Amino acid sequence: MEQEIKLFTREELKCRNTRGDAILIIHNGVYDVTKFLEQHPGGEEVLLERAGQDGTDPFEDVSHSSDARALMQQYKIGELVEADRTQSKAAFPQQWTNDTPRELGNAWSSWVLPLALALAATLLYRYLFA
């Protein structure tokens, strides 16, 4: 049996911005972070600053870890109604990677051009001034 998702409007959430009732909207999901305020590594102030409103941009600006993103799912209590949803960038975009882009080529190519230019300059100097 699938659990029904509770829908909220921005209007009904905007007053839920206190230590006793702190709600955040992140990527159109609604999260009750009241019990998480004291545990938040960045302090409760950063959560209370955006409580009752959309915190998607500040959340993404901090580049939360995948563990933090998984942890937040336990605080999800619903989603915004369709009319109040915002089009956001891809949810949880990857900010960086350890992969080397293919267009950079091999590592040796990064020093071949400077070496060739240095060799050409040396030969030109010896030819002209020797």
UniProtKB/TrEMBL annotation:
Its main location: endoplasmic reticulum. The chain crosses the membrane at residues 108-128. It holds the Pfam family Cyt-b5. SMART domains: Cyt-b5. InterPro entries: Cyt_B5-like_heme/steroid-bd, Cyt_B5-like_heme/steroid_sf, Cytochrome_b5. It is found in: Endoplasmic reticulum membrane; Microsome membrane. Belongs to the cytochrome b5 family. This is Cytochrome b5. It comes from Papilio polytes. The lineage of its organism: Eukaryota, Metazoa, Ecdysozoa, Arthropoda, Hexapoda.
